[in-house]
Amino acid sequence: MKLINQFLLITFSILILLVSCSAKKRTTLKEAFADKFLIGTAMNSKQINGLDSASIRVIKEQFSAIVPENVMKSEVIQPVEGEFDFSLADQFVKFGEKNNLFITGHTLIWHSQLPGWFCVDAKGNNVSPEILKQRMKTHIYALVGRYKGRVKGWDVVNEAIEDDGSWRKSKFYEILGEDYIRLAFQYAHEADPQAELYYNDYSMALPGKRDAVVKMVNKLQQQGVKIDGIGMQGHMTMDFPSVEEFEKSIIAFSNTGVKVMITEMDISVLPKPGKNVGADVSLNFKYDKELNPYAGSLPDSVATALQNRYADFFRLFLKYKDKISRVTVWGVNDAQSWRNNWPVRGRTDYPLLFDRNNNPKPIVEIIIKEAEEAKK
Ligand code: 9MR
Question: Whose CA is nearest to atom 16 of ligand 1?
Fold first, then answer.
């Protein structure tokens, strides 16, 4: 009798435990979007080297894809010609594999965070087209080749087009003309024929940029270049871009036949100094208290407006889930976002899905619901 009682007690306790565990377990972002698109985040160095355990937990729980915020950029990988540093990049890729995450590499050819030596000779003069081609090839082969079959997609060229649709007059453009783009894709494809290759840019909802990107992608395709996706970075403010213009770009990009992805999403609630939009990293305005109105906390009205804006965009992404392969936010929590320092240093912004304590904001629950309700 005693034995039966004990048995019943144990069974009952296990049942209670199971019920309470299942009641507590909330659906995560990656579960909700599993049959829609990948949901990713950028990882910074402290996450990659394991120092920031709180936000690492969020990454493992919530996201299905990762991209390195900085550690695969050329100034980190090859600070001096021929001297490569893959230490953090190796850790990043290992983390992705261990946690079964889709790994994107960022970025192969970009005018910014480019080491000083890359496009010039010892005297500081532009190198010849032949030398620059060789340097691009060496860099791309080394980086893409090292992670062949492990990094599944690469941002091959970043930000080659200005907001008005003209070519950005970077050193690459100055020396090689627009052909540097074709060459970058060609070298990346040679280094890992299976990897997906993307063009990635900001302010992609602007009509001038939209048209120029479509034209460029069409031309690359005519030239037989393998290009698999267009990344719309998605650095937004409360009034730019409009959902309508963003939608036009999703459609236009998808009509070229490649995948569309939102690659660096964040929404700033702070006032804009000047008329700038997008993410031109060279912009820098002087700090002024008036430009930092929410240093203590975010008023409820602004938090609600931000939440609505995030919800509007996620509704749009879900509408085009057949064309969109990934939505990545540019960082885990608000404290870590680059937006606290751009285009004015030292502000307090609230652009991401998790707050400064790594707690999900109410928007997380809302977009999970939207995803669950969206037709499969
Ligand atoms: O978030 C990145 C920040 O930590 C760096 O200081 C900055 C330097 O250029 O680059 C940021 O990431 C950029 C990304 O690589 C490309 N698109 C724009 C992003 C925001 O500037």
Answer: 158
Residue to substitute in 45, 69, 201 for testing ligand 1 pocket (most ligand atoms within 8 angstroms of CB): 69
Query: Alpha-carbon dihedral of residues 364, 231, 135, 167, nearest 10 degrees?
Result: -130
Counting the structural domains of the chain, the total is 1
Which of the residues 31, 75, 159, 178 is marked catalytic? 159
Q: What is the DSSP letter of 257?
A: T
- 4, part of any domain: no
- Output the six-digit token pair for 233: 């970075």
Determine whether 159 is an active site residue: yes
Cα 155 to ligand 1 centre (Å) = 13
Residue 269 in any domain: the answer is yes
Contact in structure between 187 and 225 (CB atoms under 8 Å): no
Range of the domain at 44: 38-273+284-373
Q: What is the whole-number distance in angstroms between the Cα of residue 338 and the centre of ligand 1?
A: 7
97 catalytic per annotation: no
- Cα–Cα distance measured from residue 44 to residue 294, given in angstroms and rounded to the nearest whole number: 24
Burial 129-161 (b: 16+ CB within 10 A, else e): eeebbebbbebbeebbebbeeebbbbbbbbbbb
> Which pair of tokens denotes residue 223?
């030239």
Residue 216: give its domain's CATH number: 3.20.20.80
pTM score > 0.90 for this model?
yes
Residue 351 lies in a domain: yes
Pocket of ligand 1 (CB under 6 A): 69-70, 112-113, 158, 202, 233, 264, 279, 281, 338
Per-residue pLDDT of the chain (376 residues; tens, 9 = 90+): 566 677 666 776 666 666 655 556 799 999 999 999 999 999 999 999 999 999 999 999 999 999 999 999 999 999 999 999 999 999 999 999 999 999 999 999 999 999 999 999 999 999 999 999 999 999 999 999 999 999 999 999 999 999 999 999 999 999 999 999 999 999 999 999 999 999 999 999 999 999 999 999 999 999 999 999 999 999 999 999 999 999 999 999 999 999 999 999 999 999 988 776 677 877 888 898 899 999 999 999 999 999 999 999 999 999 999 999 999 999 999 999 999 999 999 999 999 999 999 999 999 999 999 999 996 6
Residue 129 belongs to a domain? yes
- Residue nearest (by alpha carbon) to ligand 1 atom 14: 69
